[in-house]
Every structure is written in C-alpha cells, then in structure tokens.
Amino acid sequence: MTNATLAEPEALPELTNDDLGRYSRHLILPEVGMEGQQRLKAAKVLCVGTGGLGSPLALYLAAAGIGTLGLVDFDVVDSSNLQRQIIHSTKDIGRKKIDSAQEKLNALNPTLNVVKHDTMLTSANALEIFAQYDIIADGTDNFQTRYLVNDACVLLNKPNAYGSIFRFEGQASVFATEEGPCYRCLYPEPPPPGLVPSCAEGGVLGILPGLVGVIQATEVIKLILGKGEPLIGRLLLVDALSMRFRELKLRKNPDCPVCGTNPTVTQLIDYNQFCGIAPEPAQGTQVKNGIPQISVKELKARLDSKEARNDNFLLLDVREPYEFQIAQIGGKLIPQNEVQNRLGELNPEQEVIVHCKSGGRSQRIAELLKQNGFQRVSNVAGGILAWSDEIDPSIQKY
After folding, report:
1. Does residue 173 contact residue 231 with C-beta atoms inside 8 Å?
2. In this structure, which of 87, 282, 294, 307 has its CB flanked by the most CB atoms within 10 Å?
3. Is the domain of 364 the same as that of 236?
4. Who's near 182: CB < 8 A, 6+ residues apart?
5. What is the set of active-site residues?
C-alpha cells in the first residue's frame, strides 16, 4: 500500500464514452479501474520545467488522463535542446517552450486542461502557483530552484516528485510528504558554486531524462491512485552506462530547517544567495567578484588591433578538449580542472583573458588566478556562445 494519500476531491468527474475507450487498458487494471481513472481526471499536477525531464513527464501524464497539467517555463526552444527534450521539434526552434509543449500535449490529449505559467519560478510567485495543484513534479536543472521547489512544497504540504540528471546518471524520489524526508534532509547545504557543472557544461546522454522523467510520471500516478509504494524515504539512483538501478534509504531529519520538528525556514528565502550565487552586475558595471568583464566585441577589437603583436596578453581557454574540437576562437587550452596544477605554465606578470563556453567556468578560473597572484585577469562575458551570436555565426554553438 502507499505511504501517502492526497486530499480527496470533492466529487469525482464522470468518464465520457471517449474516456472509456481511450483509457480502456487502465480500466481493466484492478489497481486503476473506473475510480482510479476518475481520480486521474480530477488531479491537478504542476510540471516545473518543460525541458529534458519535463518532456517525457508531461507527455506521459497527458496520455494517462491527468485532468489539469500546469507548466512553468520561460525559456525558448534551442536546437541544442532537441537531443533530449522530445516534446519540442525542429520547427519549434525560437518558440517559447511552454507554447510548444502545450501544442504537443493537446495534440496527444485534446481534453487535457493545460495551464501555462510563462514565468521564472521565484520566491515571490512559487506559493501562489503551487497552491493551485495537488502534486508538484520538479524537472529543474539548478540547485537554487530545487531548494525553492522543495521549500514551497513543504510549506504547502504538496508532494514533490523529484528527478535530476547529469551525464549518464540520474536520481528520483518523492519528497515533502508528511511522513517522508524532504530534499533538504538529503542535501542540507548546496554544493559550492561551480563545483557541480550544469548539463550545459558537463553534458547529458539524451536518453537519460527519458528514463528519469518516466519514473517521475510513474510516481505521480501512484500518488494520485493511492496505490503501490512511492519513492518516499528512498532515493533511486540510475546509471545508464551500466544500466544499474540502486536504492538508498532516506530518513526524515528531525533537525531539518524546513520539515523538522522545529523549523527555522517558515517562508521562502533568497535562493540565489543561499546557493552562493552572486547577483548579476548592474547595467554598466564591468566587474564581477573583483574580476573585470570584457565583452566579445572588446576582445575582438583587441585581437584585431594593429598593435595586437605588441599587446602582450594571453587568451586562456578553460574548456575541455572535446569542446575545443567543436568550436574555438584561439588561445591556450588548459581545461578548468587542470589549471591549478599548471599554473607554472602561466606568467603572473602577463595579462590573462579567460574564456569558456558561456562565461561561468572562465569566471571561476579568473578568480582562482587572482587568488594565486595574477593581478591582470579578466573574464570574457558570454564566452563562445556570445562570440557566435555577436561576432562570427560560423562558430558552432553547442
């Protein structure tokens, strides 16, 4: 039997003749049946994100007969999304993801009520949005939003069907139920900024979010039906390379600041600050964490200047060798994880301009260089992606 129950709907909706035909394979399952399918039709589920995890998650919930599906997203479809975000197609490049997703979901299930929240999820709007739904499915890809989703779920007593992915590995669990742990019980503190690269920096096997997103959808349906054993108090680990599934038992932490006996977090906080993410420099500001920021146009001007031969600066590329093979704008390649051990190859008296794919890794390495005595260090804001957008479109984006 399940370890969690949702609030009973005031009245279960009737199934139409079309419903009886569409969901016939559910109806003959004793664990679902007529009442179970009615519960699915009455349910309201929110998908946070319509990307890698949100794509299979939303599609399978729509196919299963969920009555109302909310979508939170503010991004647009990029060609690099299509390797894994299967709800979008090539013709959707440049469209809002939320519009592209609604089109596919209603094509699959015309009676599905899709509610679009075309906004970034923040501490200011999360509680208002979450309050409209029975279950929250977290398909986000950054720590600050995961903590935000977790805390909002705990405060509102909403189950959190959690999933995350990186490279070839994924995780899934159900957090924030009354009797089970929350995300903070597992990860009380976020990792230091930059320690765990994003999927954009570290990559992800395109099939992996399909595996994890389907697991999330399964957990959502079990919670609605009140059947089976949800992943409450259990963390499922997926290794796609070895195709092995492992399980870790999780316990509710009585000292958890959110769901513990004496919670100290009783309202949503500044999650960027909590995760150690510095605010973006104000308009016109060219220094971030003590590191001057230069634009790709400024870099291009310096590279093209007649005095370039005498402009004694080193352009340092801190990406990985496989990235260097995809796209490059010149410079000395030292992958970020090797910089500390190869400082001897660099001249502390020479000006160093650091760049990477988008400016995040290069910022961290610029700060590292400054800590090691390099006085003239700057970061290329936007990196290779900005160079492709603003300088040379033939430079391949990835």
Report:
1. yes
2. 87
3. no
4. 150, 153, 154, 160, 175, 176, 252, 256, 258, 259
5. 199, 356
pLDDT digits (tens, 9 = 90+) for 46-63: 999 999 999 999 999 999
CA distances from residue 234 to 183, 189, 218 in whole angstroms, order as listed = 11, 19, 15
What span, in angstroms and rounded, lies between the C-alpha atoms of 332 and 309? 16
Residue 360 lies in a domain: yes
Q: pTM score, two decimals? A: 0.79
- State whether 170 and 312 are in the same domain: no
* DSSP for residue 96: B
Residue 290 structure tokens: 């003590």
Token digits of residue 259: 């769901």
Residues 6+ apart with CB under 8 A from 394: none
Domain of residue 113 covers: 17-274
Residue 189 exposed, middle or buried by CB count within 10 Å (0-12, 13-18, 19+): exposed
Q: Identify the H or E element spanning 384.
A: helix 383-390
Tens digits of residue pLDDT in 168-177: 999 999 999 9
Quick one: tokens of 13? 């909706």
Three-state DSSP class for residue 208: helix
Taking CA atoms, 252 is separated from 164, 187, 238, 255, 351, in Å, by 20, 12, 22, 9, 51
Same domain, 310 and 239: no
Residue 151: Cβ within 10 Å count: 29
CA distance 107 to 306: 58
Residue-level pLDDT at 286: 85
